[in-house]
Amino acid sequence: MVPTAVGRWNERYDNLQWKKIFTLSVMTSADVQLRWLQMRLLHRIIPTEKYLYSCKIVESPLCTFCRQGNETIEHLFYRCEIVKQYWEALVSLVHEKCQHAHTLRPEESLVLFGVSERQMSDKGLDMIIMWAKFFIYKSKIKKTIPTIHAFHPFMKCRWTSDKYTSIMNNTLPKFNRIWTPY
User: What is the pTM of this model?
Assistant: First the structure.
């Protein structure tokens, strides 16, 4: 039996490889916060303004950031003009810091599901995308605009924490292989 959320996503997107998508979300990070958010996104249970409005919890279905479109999952994490600027700034930062990621482009399926038919990614890039989505979600909760200037220190902190964890778990060589290109 196909989960309801998968059926709803399949109505909007073609050729999604669900086994790969669900595996990637678990294999990319051991961080429970990142896994929690990605699973909620995949199962379409993130409380967007549109959903909260339909439940009569908030007074408007409009996006927390731009206040112009209804806040759906797709709008919140990708289609909002403010979020698009954030993704573009992140891509510029990655291009500046990492030569091998020069073909990276923020694409809806890559942002939402972690996969794209037109782009290759690796575990480091997958982590950056998951951290970036988590930062968007945190910004929504705090009712602040996500910016690359605020995200950059957040990302450095998460990276440092992951490095410390790898040192404590004697997995530093694996950590270094993932992050050497970046």
Answer: 0.93
Burial pattern 2-36, b for ≥16 Cβ within 10 A else e, equals eeeebeebeeeeeebeeeebbebbeebbebeebee
| DSSP states of 61-92 | -B-TTTSSSB--HHIIIIISHHHHHHHHHHHH
| Model confidence pLDDT, tens digit, residues 73-106 | 999 999 999 999 999 999 998 888 776 677 778 8
**pLDDT digit string, tens, across residues 28-37:** 888 999 999 9
Nearest to 110 by CA among 154, 62, 78: 78
Q: Please give the tally of structural domains in the chain.
A: 1
Domain residues for the domain of 55 are 4-179
